[in-house]
Amino acid sequence: MKQLLLTLSLVALHLSAVAQENFDGSMRAYGLVDITTLDSDILVDLKYSTEDNFVGVDMYGELERAYFEESFARRVVRAQQILRERHPELTLLIYDAARPISVQRAMRREVEGTELESFVADGTRGGRHNYGVAVDLTIATLDGEPLDMGAGFDDFTKAAYVKGTADSADASTRTVKVYRDYAQWQVEQGIISEEAARNRLLLIEVMHEAGLYPYRREWWHFEEIKTMSATRERYRLLDF
User: Fold this and answer.
1) What pTM was estimated for this model as a whole?
2) Host domain of residue 41
3) How many angstroms separate the CA atoms of 233 and 240, rounded?
4) Domain annotation covers residue 49
Protein backbone atom coordinates (compact mmCIF):
# COMPACT_ATOMS: atom_id res chain seq x y z
CA MET A 1 0.00 0.00 0.00
CA LYS A 2 2.80 2.43 0.90
CA GLN A 3 4.46 1.69 -2.44
CA LEU A 4 1.19 2.34 -4.26
CA LEU A 5 0.69 5.65 -2.46
CA LEU A 6 4.26 6.67 -3.26
CA THR A 7 3.74 5.78 -6.91
CA LEU A 8 0.49 7.76 -7.07
CA SER A 9 2.19 10.74 -5.43
CA LEU A 10 5.02 10.65 -7.95
CA VAL A 11 2.55 10.41 -10.82
CA ALA A 12 0.62 13.40 -9.45
CA LEU A 13 3.81 15.42 -9.14
CA HIS A 14 4.80 14.48 -12.68
CA LEU A 15 1.41 15.48 -14.08
CA SER A 16 1.59 18.75 -12.16
CA ALA A 17 5.03 19.47 -13.59
CA VAL A 18 3.85 18.67 -17.12
CA ALA A 19 0.86 21.00 -16.67
CA GLN A 20 3.13 23.81 -15.48
CA GLU A 21 5.51 23.30 -18.41
CA ASN A 22 2.55 23.59 -20.78
CA PHE A 23 1.30 26.90 -19.36
CA ASP A 24 3.08 28.84 -22.12
CA GLY A 25 1.44 26.79 -24.84
CA SER A 26 -1.97 27.02 -23.21
CA MET A 27 -1.68 30.80 -22.84
CA ARG A 28 -0.93 31.16 -26.53
CA ALA A 29 -3.70 28.70 -27.46
CA TYR A 30 -6.15 30.94 -25.61
CA GLY A 31 -5.01 33.88 -27.73
CA LEU A 32 -2.99 35.65 -25.03
CA VAL A 33 0.15 37.57 -25.87
CA ASP A 34 3.55 37.71 -24.19
CA ILE A 35 3.96 41.35 -23.12
CA THR A 36 7.65 41.44 -24.05
CA THR A 37 6.79 40.75 -27.70
CA LEU A 38 5.05 44.14 -27.69
CA ASP A 39 7.68 45.97 -25.61
CA SER A 40 10.92 44.20 -24.78
CA ASP A 41 11.91 46.89 -22.26
CA ILE A 42 9.20 45.84 -19.80
CA LEU A 43 10.74 43.71 -17.04
CA VAL A 44 9.08 40.52 -15.80
CA ASP A 45 9.64 38.75 -12.48
CA LEU A 46 6.66 36.44 -11.92
CA LYS A 47 6.48 36.08 -8.15
CA TYR A 48 4.34 32.93 -8.38
CA SER A 49 7.12 31.27 -10.38
CA THR A 50 9.21 31.57 -7.21
CA GLU A 51 8.67 30.98 -3.52
CA ASP A 52 8.86 34.74 -2.91
CA ASN A 53 5.10 35.19 -2.52
CA PHE A 54 2.49 35.04 0.22
CA VAL A 55 1.91 31.28 -0.05
CA GLY A 56 5.64 30.54 -0.13
CA VAL A 57 5.14 28.04 -2.96
CA ASP A 58 6.18 28.06 -6.63
CA MET A 59 2.76 27.93 -8.34
CA TYR A 60 3.81 28.39 -11.99
CA GLY A 61 6.78 26.08 -12.41
CA GLU A 62 8.55 26.85 -15.69
CA LEU A 63 6.31 29.78 -16.64
CA GLU A 64 8.42 32.96 -16.83
CA ARG A 65 6.50 35.11 -19.33
CA ALA A 66 3.71 37.56 -18.60
CA TYR A 67 0.65 36.92 -20.78
CA PHE A 68 -2.45 39.08 -21.24
CA GLU A 69 -5.44 39.51 -23.48
CA GLU A 70 -4.03 41.58 -26.35
CA SER A 71 -6.17 44.68 -25.77
CA PHE A 72 -5.17 44.69 -22.11
CA ALA A 73 -1.51 44.11 -22.99
CA ARG A 74 -1.58 47.18 -25.19
CA ARG A 75 -2.78 49.27 -22.26
CA VAL A 76 0.19 48.08 -20.21
CA VAL A 77 2.51 48.90 -23.11
CA ARG A 78 0.97 52.37 -23.33
CA ALA A 79 1.67 52.89 -19.62
CA GLN A 80 5.28 51.86 -20.21
CA GLN A 81 5.58 54.40 -23.03
CA ILE A 82 4.17 57.16 -20.82
CA LEU A 83 6.57 56.27 -18.02
CA ARG A 84 9.52 56.15 -20.41
CA GLU A 85 8.65 59.59 -21.81
CA ARG A 86 8.56 61.08 -18.30
CA HIS A 87 11.35 59.08 -16.71
CA PRO A 88 13.70 57.37 -19.21
CA GLU A 89 15.63 55.92 -16.26
CA LEU A 90 12.61 53.88 -15.07
CA THR A 91 10.57 50.93 -16.32
CA LEU A 92 7.57 48.81 -15.41
CA LEU A 93 8.31 45.54 -13.61
CA ILE A 94 5.55 42.91 -13.78
CA TYR A 95 4.99 40.56 -10.84
CA ASP A 96 1.91 38.68 -12.10
CA ALA A 97 -0.27 38.55 -15.18
CA ALA A 98 -2.70 35.97 -16.58
CA ARG A 99 -3.29 33.17 -14.08
CA PRO A 100 -4.82 29.78 -14.99
CA ILE A 101 -7.89 28.89 -12.93
CA SER A 102 -6.13 25.70 -11.81
CA VAL A 103 -3.46 27.84 -10.15
CA GLN A 104 -6.11 30.04 -8.53
CA ARG A 105 -7.71 26.99 -6.97
CA ALA A 106 -4.35 25.63 -5.87
CA MET A 107 -3.51 28.96 -4.24
CA ARG A 108 -6.79 28.88 -2.33
CA ARG A 109 -6.08 25.35 -1.07
CA GLU A 110 -2.71 26.53 0.22
CA VAL A 111 -4.31 29.18 2.46
CA GLU A 112 -7.61 27.56 3.46
CA GLY A 113 -8.11 27.71 7.21
CA THR A 114 -5.54 30.49 7.62
CA GLU A 115 -5.88 34.24 8.11
CA LEU A 116 -5.02 34.69 4.43
CA GLU A 117 -8.05 32.76 3.18
CA SER A 118 -10.21 35.87 2.76
CA PHE A 119 -7.64 37.44 0.45
CA VAL A 120 -7.72 34.62 -2.12
CA ALA A 121 -10.74 33.92 -4.33
CA ASP A 122 -11.71 30.25 -4.31
CA GLY A 123 -11.66 29.92 -8.10
CA THR A 124 -15.35 29.05 -8.43
CA ARG A 125 -15.91 31.61 -11.18
CA GLY A 126 -12.54 33.24 -11.60
CA GLY A 127 -11.27 36.78 -11.09
CA ARG A 128 -9.64 39.23 -13.48
CA HIS A 129 -6.25 37.50 -13.46
CA ASN A 130 -8.04 34.31 -14.53
CA TYR A 131 -9.28 36.11 -17.65
CA GLY A 132 -5.93 37.68 -18.55
CA VAL A 133 -7.07 41.22 -17.75
CA ALA A 134 -5.26 42.15 -14.55
CA VAL A 135 -1.64 42.98 -13.86
CA ASP A 136 0.44 43.13 -10.70
CA LEU A 137 3.39 45.43 -11.18
CA THR A 138 5.65 48.15 -9.87
CA ILE A 139 8.14 50.69 -11.15
CA ALA A 140 11.84 49.83 -11.15
CA THR A 141 15.17 51.19 -12.28
CA LEU A 142 16.43 49.86 -15.59
CA ASP A 143 18.54 47.28 -13.76
CA GLY A 144 15.43 45.91 -12.03
CA GLU A 145 15.59 47.57 -8.60
CA PRO A 146 12.00 48.27 -7.46
CA LEU A 147 11.14 51.72 -6.15
CA ASP A 148 9.92 52.12 -2.58
CA MET A 149 6.12 51.80 -2.57
CA GLY A 150 5.70 51.79 1.20
CA ALA A 151 4.66 48.12 1.33
CA GLY A 152 5.90 45.05 -0.48
CA PHE A 153 4.13 42.92 -3.04
CA ASP A 154 1.59 40.60 -1.39
CA ASP A 155 1.43 42.83 1.69
CA PHE A 156 -2.09 42.48 3.12
CA THR A 157 -1.88 45.27 5.70
CA LYS A 158 -3.46 48.70 5.33
CA ALA A 159 -0.08 50.02 4.24
CA ALA A 160 -0.82 48.44 0.85
CA TYR A 161 -4.14 50.29 0.41
CA VAL A 162 -4.38 52.97 -2.25
CA LYS A 163 -7.69 54.59 -1.36
CA GLY A 164 -10.39 54.53 1.25
CA THR A 165 -13.51 54.29 -0.91
CA ALA A 166 -14.98 51.15 -2.44
CA ASP A 167 -14.01 50.15 -5.97
CA SER A 168 -16.72 50.70 -8.56
CA ALA A 169 -17.29 50.90 -12.30
CA ASP A 170 -17.89 54.64 -11.91
CA ALA A 171 -14.76 56.42 -13.14
CA SER A 172 -15.66 59.55 -11.18
CA THR A 173 -14.91 57.71 -7.93
CA ARG A 174 -11.53 56.46 -9.16
CA THR A 175 -9.66 59.60 -10.15
CA VAL A 176 -6.00 60.41 -9.62
CA LYS A 177 -7.10 63.08 -7.14
CA VAL A 178 -8.88 60.44 -5.01
CA TYR A 179 -5.71 58.36 -4.92
CA ARG A 180 -3.48 61.38 -4.28
CA ASP A 181 -5.62 62.57 -1.36
CA TYR A 182 -5.59 59.10 0.18
CA ALA A 183 -1.81 58.77 -0.22
CA GLN A 184 -1.36 62.14 1.45
CA TRP A 185 -3.56 60.99 4.33
CA GLN A 186 -1.38 57.86 4.67
CA VAL A 187 1.71 60.08 4.86
CA GLU A 188 0.10 62.29 7.50
CA GLN A 189 -0.79 59.19 9.52
CA GLY A 190 2.77 57.86 9.27
CA ILE A 191 1.64 54.80 7.30
CA ILE A 192 3.90 55.41 4.31
CA SER A 193 6.68 57.89 3.56
CA GLU A 194 6.56 60.91 1.27
CA GLU A 195 8.85 59.07 -1.16
CA ALA A 196 6.59 56.01 -1.23
CA ALA A 197 3.56 58.24 -1.83
CA ARG A 198 5.30 59.93 -4.78
CA ASN A 199 6.24 56.58 -6.27
CA ARG A 200 2.73 55.19 -5.86
CA LEU A 201 1.22 58.25 -7.48
CA LEU A 202 3.62 58.00 -10.40
CA LEU A 203 2.57 54.40 -10.96
CA ILE A 204 -1.11 55.28 -10.63
CA GLU A 205 -0.80 58.25 -12.99
CA VAL A 206 0.86 56.35 -15.85
CA MET A 207 -1.50 53.41 -15.49
CA HIS A 208 -4.55 55.69 -15.18
CA GLU A 209 -3.57 57.52 -18.37
CA ALA A 210 -3.44 54.13 -20.09
CA GLY A 211 -6.93 53.31 -18.86
CA LEU A 212 -6.08 51.01 -15.94
CA TYR A 213 -7.07 51.49 -12.29
CA PRO A 214 -5.71 50.18 -8.98
CA TYR A 215 -7.54 47.78 -6.68
CA ARG A 216 -8.10 49.58 -3.38
CA ARG A 217 -6.30 47.02 -1.16
CA GLU A 218 -3.28 46.32 -3.41
CA TRP A 219 -1.17 49.18 -4.75
CA TRP A 220 0.38 46.76 -7.28
CA HIS A 221 -2.86 45.45 -8.85
CA PHE A 222 -4.36 47.24 -11.88
CA GLU A 223 -7.43 46.44 -13.95
CA GLU A 224 -9.92 47.89 -16.40
CA ILE A 225 -12.82 49.85 -14.96
CA LYS A 226 -15.30 47.14 -15.77
CA THR A 227 -17.62 45.03 -13.61
CA MET A 228 -16.80 41.36 -13.13
CA SER A 229 -20.01 40.36 -14.94
CA ALA A 230 -18.94 42.46 -17.94
CA THR A 231 -15.43 41.00 -17.70
CA ARG A 232 -16.80 37.46 -17.77
CA GLU A 233 -19.04 38.26 -20.74
CA ARG A 234 -16.23 39.77 -22.80
CA TYR A 235 -13.24 37.57 -21.99
CA ARG A 236 -12.51 33.86 -21.84
CA LEU A 237 -11.79 32.06 -18.57
CA LEU A 238 -8.33 30.49 -18.57
CA ASP A 239 -9.72 27.04 -17.86
CA PHE A 240 -6.52 25.01 -17.63
Assistant:
1) 0.90
2) 25-234
3) 18
4) yes
